[in-house]
């Protein structure tokens, strides 16, 4: 079945929410007279729909920017560092396990190598670099990207709330107090989703800032480390390698850090960001 609305939201409201438009099949539904509880509840529901649309768009735009930065950091810094480690290991100057922390070593091995197509990177901002969308989150990630809600297909569930059910109502919904109560309940659910998306935006912003900082610092350290200097005076380059290893460990772990758990819950932030 297509997306049906029991009251006259109209095309503008659909576009504002980002819902897939199937205008020929929309049911006008009952009209609520101005001044009634139902009409007031409908207006509040409309405001929550608009807030949901705006917040989803903010999360989508930030996730896209962050995924692009993740890819830059990986290609411009992580890949050259991986090549440096391989060269030093061949020359028996250092091994990855000696240079990186245990967590950094595991994170580096989990990162993919070489350029990644955009389609592959769509889930990275939310789930971490190298992660693929889990079945439980596929519908949510598709909605974040496209903004479509339909009755068919896997339900979009955010923070335990079915967005289709909260954004639409049963076409047979009665008018009057019952309609007002149902609209109020749906509005409260939409507001919970908006709050959840705001928290997700905050996490993405924190991760974005941390990766940007670590990427800049690690790039600078990497530029000043010449592998051939180990053959001349190993003490100084080894100290530089130690500092670089610490930075790179933090960077690759940050790149792997998810904003959402596979269950759909907000992932806890690592210690430097949680404070």
Q: What does this protein look like?
A:
This protein has 275 residues and is mainly α. It has one domain. The chain contains eleven helices and two strands; from the N terminus they run αααααααββαααα. The protein is elongated. The protein starts with 9 loop residues before the first helix and ends with a helix.
Keywords:
single chain, mainly alpha, two-stranded antiparallel ribbon, 11 helices, disordered N terminus
Q: Give helix and strand order, one letter per element, not per position.
A: HHHHHHHEEHHHH
Question: Total domains, how many?
Answer: 1
Number of strands: 2
Q: Please estimate the helix content.
A: 55-70%
Give Rg in angstroms: 25 Å
Strands in their spatial order, largest beta sheet: 1-2
End-to-end CA span: 47 Å
Provide a count of the helices: 11
Largest sheet: 2 strands, antiparallel
Shape: elongated
Low-confidence stretches: 1-29
Itemize the secondary structure elements and their pairings.
Elements: H1 10-17, H2 37-90, H3 96-99, H4 102-110, H5 118-121, H6 124-127, H7 138-146, E1 157-158, E2 161-162, H8 163-167, H9 177-223, H10 235-256, H11 271-274
Helix pairs in contact: 2-9, 2-10, 4-10, 9-10
In short:
The protein is an all-alpha fold and 275 residues long. Helix content is 62%, strand content 1%.
